[in-house]
Amino acid sequence: MHLQTSTATPAVRFQGVERHFGHVRAVDGVDLAIAPGEFFAMLGPSGSGKTTCLRLIAGFEQPDAGHIEIFGETVEGLPPYRRAVNTVFQDYALFPHLSVGDNVAYGLKVRGVGRAERDRLAREALAMVKLAGTETRRPSQLSGGQRQRVALARALVVRPKVLLLDEPLGALDLKLREEMQSELKGLQRALGLTFVFVTHDQGEALSMADRVAVFNEGRIVQVGPPEEVYERPATRFVARFVGSANVLEAAQAASLGGAARPSSLRPEKIALLAHGAPAPEGVAVIEARVIDVSYQGPVRRVTAVTEPGLTLAAAVPASAAGVIAGATVRLAVPAAALVPMEGEG
Amino acid sequence: MSLATFELPEPREGALRRLSDVLTRHTRLLTLLLLVPPLLWLGLVYLGSLFVFLGQSIFSIDEFSGTIVREPTTATLLELFRPANYDIVLRTVGIATAVTLLCALIAFPIAYYAARYAGPKVKAAFYLAVMMPLWSSYLVKVYGWKLLLAKEGAIGWFADRLGLGGALEAWLDLPLVGGPSLSVSYTGMVLTFTYLWLPFMILPVQAALERVPPHLIEAAGDLGASPGLVFRTVILPLAMPGVVAGAIFTFSLTLGDYIVPQIIGTSALVLGQAVYTLQGTAGNIPLAAAFSLVPILVMAVFLTVAKRTGAFDAL
């Protein structure tokens, strides 16, 4: 495995990039630097600008302001076919009139690679994604998961410097998605490529990426390793979007023993305490009335309101007994679980 | 008003509702009921009479009495290959091919623009513009073109004004496509046909182009294909079924027409005129039937070739 450029040059660099559609500022001043060989996730709700950022890297969109570099090369004005990046589309975008083998070989064909050579490379690429022997089939004869792999092979066979993935697992069922997650991660490691992928699924972003950028309203609100984004959300938006944390105002956080700052509190950090049990050191205990319980397999998500009118969500073991709507429970909140948020929004 | 206290009235039972129940349960019955009338029309009235007529081609005509000899023979069919008749077939197929190619060439950019770039308002205007000529009389349009193409007509006048009079003369001096004036040349006939059938090419091509997912075009560019290559390797193959559908219209409409060639073009006959004369004044129904087989065979060959070359791969 080797990297094409020194690690000092980012694989992708955005500087103050903006993209407007009419009055909508789809991308509103984005700065980012993606390191070579990094698995980088762009996470955000629909309409947050993450897909537009991906399309700006691919060249399907041109920025209205700002500067984009791919491995140190300025790419503004460069059409997609002049960029050393390739995309795996959300709907796979396989050519329906070509066989699976010809789909994979398409990028080689337009570069003038001879028939025998491109057939060999396409076979290799298909074997890499565990689809050996499907060359003569039509995309319409494959399942969703298989089409996804063909799209991956088609993009990888032309050796992109950066692989872009637009919601690559969105259309797959849960089991297949988990399988593909680890496979994608494995491929990325084996090839040493830079992967940039867009998703609205926080679980996917956290489990696959080396770093996650959280998008909201055309801006990046936080970038960092998954643990950091999850454990220390910078803003209310990140706290709520990534793992649906509780968001406490400054006074509420202070009343539970935290800093007098707006803070986030992960539901799984809240425990149930039996009636009469003493409060451990550094743990605030509050009584709350359960208003909703939803069973989620390993845990029950309990929504409860405290006397001062604070609504808290807690994830408690599914085996916890006696937790029904209307019941009064004692919630144990460790002061260390209150994470102050620095950012606005 | 509270949603909880609102009483939803029971639907009223009736014969129609019970009929709906039966048809919902027996979907085949519904299909059958819907298809029987058109199938009867298509099968008996249309195809039946067509085959009865085409069947006449195995009979022959008595040279002296002019009556039909009802004995199976291949003589009539073989008559098609007599030089005079064979020329008619070749001439008509040639004209139809030229018309189809010209229609496809003109229609494609228009359809491409309408399918991929036009906004809703422009698209409505486009449909109107394409369909409008179909609302006026066919004969008016053909006579209109006769005037446009005439020696002193608008096309000649414009050519003179633009200093292209010489080029027009040079074109008319060419063998085959030329003639004394555009209105009595094959060129004029092809132009008129192209104008008449153009909507039948634009609409299917536009429909096919509209179904090409934009992502496919992006994917091709993403994989390194320049716009020209994207067009050749993705857009054109995917639009081909539409082009073939349009070509079926322009080709068969030209093969069967006998009015335009009477008004515009040379005095040499085309298929439609031959059939018209043979079944009318000449009373030679068997040969007219034999001639009528030609367009069907030509279309069959055309579709087979189209399929072989992969024009329907995208379907």
TrEMBL record, chain A:
- Its domain of life reads Bacteria
Q: Which UniProt keyword terms apply here?
A: ATP-binding, Nucleotide-binding, Transport
Q: Gene3D superfamilies, alphabetically?
A: P-loop containing nucleotide triphosphate hydrolases (3.40.50.300)
Which SMART domains does this one have? AAA
InterPro entries assigned to the protein according to its UniProt record, in alphabetical order: AAA+_ATPase, ABC_SmlMolc_Importer, ABC_transporter-like_ATP-bd, ABC_transporter-like_CS, Mo/tungstate-bd_C_term_dom, P-loop_NTPase, Transp-assoc_OB_typ2
Query: Is the Transport keyword given for this protein?
Result: yes
User: The ABC transporter domain covers which part of the protein?
Assistant: 12-242
Entry GO MF terms: ATP binding
- PANTHER family for this protein: SPERMIDINE/PUTRESCINE IMPORT ATP-BINDING PROTEIN POTA, SPERMIDINE_PUTRESCINE IMPORT ATP-BINDING PROTEIN POTA
Which family does the similarity line name? Belongs to the ABC transporter superfamily.
Spell out the protein name for this chain.
ABC transporter ATP-binding protein
Supply the source organism for this entry.
Answer: Ancylobacter koreensis
Automatic annotation (TrEMBL), chain B:
> Does Transport show up as a keyword for this record?
yes
Record field: transmembrane? 29-54, 88-112, 184-209, 229-253, 259-278, 285-306
Q: Which CDD domains match?
A: TM_PBP2
Leader sequence residues? none
Its topology with respect to the membrane?
A: Multi-pass membrane protein
As for subcellular location, the record says:
Cell membrane
**Broad class of the protein's primary localization:** membrane
* Alphabetical keyword list: Cell membrane, Membrane, Transmembrane, Transmembrane helix, Transport
The segment(s) forming the ABC transmembrane type-1 domain are: 89-306
Specify the domain of life of the species encoding this protein: Bacteria
Family per record? Belongs to the binding-protein-dependent transport system permease family. CysTW subfamily.
What is the name attached to this protein's record? ABC transporter permease
Species in which this protein is naturally found: Ancylobacter koreensis
